[in-house]
Amino acid sequence: MIHLSLIGIGTGNPEHVTLAGVRALQAAELILLPRKGEARSDLVDLRRLLCRNLLDEAALSRVVEFDLPRRDRRDDYLGAVDDWHAAIAETWREQMSRHLPQGGRVAMLIWGDPSLYDSSLRIAERLELPGQGVEVEVVPGITSLQVLTAEHRIPLNALAEPVQITTGRRLRERGWPEDAASVAVMLDAGGAFQALAPEGLHIWWGAYLGMDKQCLIDGPLAEVGPAIVERRAALRERHGWIMDVYLLARAPLLSRTPG
What we know:
Protein name: Precorrin-6A synthase (Deacetylating)
Oligomer: single chain
Low-confidence stretches: none
Number of helices: 8
Domain Tetrapyrrole methylase: 4-224
InterPro entries: 4pyrrol_Mease (IPR000878), 4pyrrol_Methylase_sf (IPR035996), 4pyrrole_Mease_sub1 (IPR014777), 4pyrrole_Mease_sub2 (IPR014776), CobF (IPR012797)
EC number: 2.1.1.152
Distance between the termini: 55 Å
Radius of gyration: 20 Å
Keywords: Cobalamin biosynthesis, Methyltransferase, S-adenosyl-L-methionine, Transferase
């Protein structure tokens, strides 16, 4: 039996890893760290730092790095993602079979939390190891939306109002979701909010949340939207990659926010 722990590790601050996450990491016989290419080396560097801070020398010997397959950028987005997930599952299987042929406890460090716009659970569902079963454990982590609202000191929703979590792609294609007073946007390739009429909208934006390079901007969308687009492009150019998220609202979230 392979016991796979998907451990949410937050968004960049080592102090955001929960005690349950630490225990699961220390109990693992194999800790797999994905490499995503030089442009995003900060992500594996952070995972290395977490392991060095949380594990002793004996446990560090159980850390194995591997290269993550790349997604085909073809027009068939869902089909490309499906093929990509299959390739990742095969890579996971190869690593587990090579390093734990008799089974054991495996840990994967998941950015944010496995439940929110992360595909580790879908990939784990595809795992097939001949002669072995796979038992999956989820250790919750802090999401980018939690860090965003904490850093801006706001709630996600207006009082007694719904909030919708969506992607930049859907916001750009479908506009403002019906009946939503606030909208949290993830996985935006850049500036999907520009597809909206900005009047009456307020935005709270954050990039590299939890990291030392964290950047925050908020204000009326009509005023700060262009500045966010410009800052995002500059940060991507400087670091070679960017991870950002934002919240848009029509109704006041707190008495001091616009209404």
